């Protein structure tokens, strides 16, 4: 998802701690201070990242500052009728307790089956301004 957002022109925050794969295909790194989000002094770091994409593990969402609004694109994958990532219903219930989060759920498999439609949804959810053509091209290549 980070690579997709970056291809659309969204600034992305990378920690440069974890190396990219040789082909650059997997660059879904997490910001280094994710590890420190539970410390009160480090929570302010996210205030400076407004308008940028960052990958935060689901289990860390409750540790981010509640003084801001956040938008999350939650990418999940299913194999047959079985979800391989967390059950979106469980996630919806968990996110309901986090009032500062707006969430768009995207099925990984459907993203590749209908790339343009999903890129348009993501772009709209994030306020517009992303290059949907480049995002679609990335998924179609």
Summarize this structure briefly:
This protein has about 140 residues and is an alpha+beta fold.
What is the topological layout?
Blueprint: H1 2-7, E1 70-76, E2 78-79, E3 82-83, H2 88-96, E4 101-107, H3 108-113, H4 115-125, H5 132-140
Parallel strand pairs: 1-4
Antiparallel strand pairs: 2-3
Helix pairs in contact: 4-5
Descriptive labels:
alpha+beta, two-stranded antiparallel sheet, globular, 141 residues, 13% strand
Write structural notes for this entry:
The chain has one domain (2-140). The relative contact order is 0.18. With 141 residues, the protein is an alpha+beta fold. The longest helix has 11 residues, at 115-125. The protein is built from 5 helices and 4 strands; from the N terminus they run αβββαβααα. Helix content is 29%, strand content 13%. The strands form 2 sheets. A two-stranded parallel sheet has the order 1-4. Strands 2-3 form a two-stranded antiparallel sheet.
Strand sequence of the main sheet, in spatial order? 1-4
| Structural shape | globular
Strand residue content: 5-15%
Class per helix and strand makeup? alpha+beta
C-alpha Rg, in Å? 15 Å
Tell me, rounded to a whole number, the average pLDDT. 75
Count every helix, treating DSSP H or I runs of 4 or more residues as helices: 5
Number of DSSP-assigned strands: 4
**Domain unit count:** 1
Order of helices and strands: HEEEHEHHH
Biggest sheet character: 2 strands, parallel
Helix coverage percent:
25-40%
N- to C-terminal distance: 15 Å
Low-confidence stretches at least 5 residues in length (pLDDT < 50)? 22-29
